[in-house]
Structure formats: C-alpha cells, structure tokens
C-alpha cells in the first residue's frame, strides 16, 4: 500500500475511483454524460488536491454541476462506499482519514443542497 500524501497519489486515487464508478451498476449511468473522462479526472485531481493539500488550481462550483443529474439520496451512500473502498484497498496514512471525512462532508452537503431544490433546478440552492 502506498501513502496518500501528494498530487501523484491523489491522481491515482481519482483514477481508481472513477474506474470503479464507470463499472458500477447503479452509479455508472449518473456519470454517462461525461464525454471527456481525461479532462474530468484532471479536474477532480485538482479538486482533491485543493481539498486535501490546499493546492491552488481548482475553481468552480461542484454543487451546480450536480443539479439535474437524477442523483438521489441513496446514490451518495453508494458513492461514499466506492470512495472509501478505493481508499482502504490502495492507500494508507493520515490523509486517507482526512479524505474520507471530507468526502462524507461533501456528500452530506450535496445531498442537502440537491434535496432542498428537489435536484431539478440549475443554479445555486436557495
């Protein structure tokens, strides 16, 4: 197992995660609209590098990107399960626990924002 401690390992984590997502029976259809996986994974590497390492390089609104995708509360639990499995099976170190806690917070916040708007509105939550 390798430590999760720099951008290279975060890129590996992101690649492993999306490989799992793309083959997941329930979650894969939610991500089917992504046409440029390489670009998406680069953005997500920048996002997680920002979240975990405080690196500059990510900008955007992750909340708005999740509206109108048909995401329901159970999807967040599945997403977290896949994310945590990737971490547990491939990485070790303090950053793993930090990533899990951040992912849980992100899932909770997105779930709240989407449910508040019925997941149907484009734009910021009220």
Briefly say what this structure is:
By secondary structure, this protein is mostly helical.
How large is the count of helical segments?
Answer: 5
- CATH class identity: Mainly Alpha
The amount of beta strand, in percent, is under 5%
Order of helices and strands: EHHHHEH
Number of strands: 2
Strands of the biggest beta sheet: in what spatial order? 1-2
Task: Find the structural class using helix and strand composition.
Answer: mainly alpha
Mean pLDDT: 83
Q: Major sheet: size, sense and barrel closure?
A: 2 strands, parallel
How many domains, in number, for the residues? 1
Radius of gyration: 14 Å
Structure report:
The chain has 126 residues and is mostly helical. It has one domain: Orthogonal Bundle (Globin-like). It contains five helices and two strands. Strands 1-2 form a two-stranded parallel ribbon. Residues 119-126 have low confidence and may be disordered.
């Amino acid at each position: 197992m390798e430590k999760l401690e720099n951008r290279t390992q975060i890129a590996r984590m992101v690649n492993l995660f999306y490989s799992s997502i793309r083959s997941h029976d329930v979650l894969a259809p939610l991500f089917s609209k992504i046409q440029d996986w390489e670009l998406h994974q680069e953005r997500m590497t920048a996002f997680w590098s920002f979240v975990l390492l405080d690196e500059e390089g990510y900008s955007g609104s992750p909340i708005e990107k999740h509206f109108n995708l048909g995401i329901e509360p159970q999807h967040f639990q599945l997403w977290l399960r896949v994310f945590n499995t990737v971490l547990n099976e491939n990485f070790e170190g303090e950053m793993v626990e930090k990533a899990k806690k951040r992912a849980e917070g992100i899932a909770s916040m997105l779930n709240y924002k989407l449910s508040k708007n019925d997941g149907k509105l484009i734009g910021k939550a009220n």
